[in-house]
Amino acid sequence: MVLCVKATTAPPAPQTEKMIRELLKRHDSNNNNRLDKAEVQSAFDELGSKFSFYRRLRGIKIADENGDGVINMYDNELDNLVKYIMSKNYDTSKQKKLNAS
């Protein structure tokens, strides 16, 4: 008798919009409330994207409503980028946590 056991892995931890927003805010390295190309790509790198260059291009294209090439943190552009990132189902359980200060 042959017994086949299917190897399974635990599903990735669910990501939340709040976690994604916190991650993006951390990557606003110059604190100008705008995410430039390098900052968006750095966020995708932290998320573990294998194609961070492509994800950055695609994310900005989808999210950048006014076409200035950056993501404004306090309007619909940030919301659009968060939705795009969430649609890719990244595992955020391994991401850095913000200080509680």
Write the layout of secondary structure elements.
Blueprint: H1 17-26, E1 34-35, H2 37-47, H3 52-63, E2 71-72, H4 76-87
Antiparallel strand pairs: 1-2
Explain the overall architecture.
- This protein is mainly alpha-helical and 101 residues long.
- It has a single domain (17-91), classed as Recoverin, domain 1 (Orthogonal Bundle), CATH 1.10.238.
- It contains four helices and two strands.
- The protein has helices spanning 17-26, 37-47, 52-63, 76-87; strands at 34-35, 71-72.
- It has a two-stranded antiparallel ribbon.
- Helix 2 crosses helix 3 (52-63) and helix 3 (52-63) packs across helix 4 (76-87).
- The model is unreliable at 96-101 (pLDDT under 50).
- GO terms for molecular function: calcium ion binding.
- Keywords: Calcium.
- This is EF-hand domain-containing protein.
Number of strands: 2
Gyration radius over CA: 16 Å
CATH homologous superfamily title: EF-hand
Helix content: 40-55%
Low-confidence segments: 96-101
Mean pLDDT: 83
Strand content: under 5%
CATH fold annotation: Recoverin, domain 1
Examine the secondary-structure arrangement and name the CATH architecture. Answer: Orthogonal Bundle
String of helices and strands:
HEHHEH
Q: What would you call the shape? A: elongated
Major sheet: arrangement of strands: 1-2
